What we know:
60% of the residues lie in helices and 0% in strands. The model is unreliable at 384-388 (pLDDT under 50). The protein has 388 residues and is mainly alpha-helical. The protein has helices at 8-19, 29-40, 48-65, 86-89, 97-122, 131-138, 141-149, 154-166, 171-178, 189-197, 204-225, 229-238, 256-264, 274-290, 296-309, 324-333, 336-352, 363-378.
Amino acid sequence: MTWLRLLPFPLAAIVVVFALPGVFPPKDFTEYWSAAKVLAAGGDPYNGAELLPVQRQLAEELARKEGKEPEPEGKVVSLWTPPWTLPFYAPLGWLPFEAARGVWLFLQLTLLFASVELLRRTYGGAESRWFVPHLVAFAFAPTFWMAHYGQNTAFLLLGLAGFLYFRPTRPTLAGCFAALTAIKPHLLAVVGVLIVLDVFRDRGWRVLLGGALMLVVGSAVALAFNTHIFQLFVEATTRPATAETVPLKDWHVPLFAYDLRQWIDPTRFGIQFVPCAVACGLMAVSRLFRGKTWDWAEQLPAGVLVSCLYAPYGGWIFDLVVLLVPVTQLVCRARGPIGGALVVLTVVLNVAAIRPINLQDFGWYAVVTGLVWVVATVNRRFPPPLRP
């Protein structure tokens, strides 16, 4: 019954999503479903020219159902995640769009609240107030935007939470969970470097083994669909702009790395990777310096924050679901008036971010969330962690 008590949260979220179709249009889920259709037909799921007919037909069907005229053709919603992620999307192609979307949203929201429960147990959240971090997660702005876009970032949060929870007792299983963060390796690059360096700790090699096995299995499934899938992925990420696709280098992202590139030389996409590389190097030095005193429960929230702040691209508000790691730590451990005020501030911050504005306008969100977490940490309102 412990896990079943979480069920009302994703169910309530699903009801909200489908009760407000104007607020929650299909958006990014279209890329996963159309990629699954193209993949099942033996095509290239990374090619905008192959995705466009599927997405165009879907748009016409949805417009007809709503009694509207189809909108003028625009850019295709492209797939950008690596080939080992394709097994997550492939089953969607077997279902009609609306059914697939419902299954996907329920899965993402269920995994999100399951992840928060793992984090609550890791950080010693009181059993009598088990629902508090879940209510915060329900009101969390990135949760809203993840559902709004039909995104996949609950997988990343599960990867972080599962790794953190199982690392002390079952390192191989922890590595399997950690592999989920490779769905968007650019977003959690710093965390990835820290996990690789975990090999120097006792049984750390088992973490890497579990993660490697997961990636090998995912890659093998993708190759079974198309033996050239990795080549096609590389071509997609390096291809210049086409009539159907906006390449990664042309994204206007709400990140420091993008602003740095615009300041130095807007034509050089490689500049956006410099802050991430520096952050990875500094965190790696910190990790090696701490040696056996390294504590994942204490250090992972900082690693997640640094990863999000210095990501080379992406970093959209729906990606920031992973910030539930530091936020849940704060909620579970906050004590006294200052701790309570910080939790209230976190809730207010998220309510302010649940409103229809451009995705590029959320550059402040990770910065402010990080500042709230730092204030809580510096004020030492966190008691010692409770180990699983």
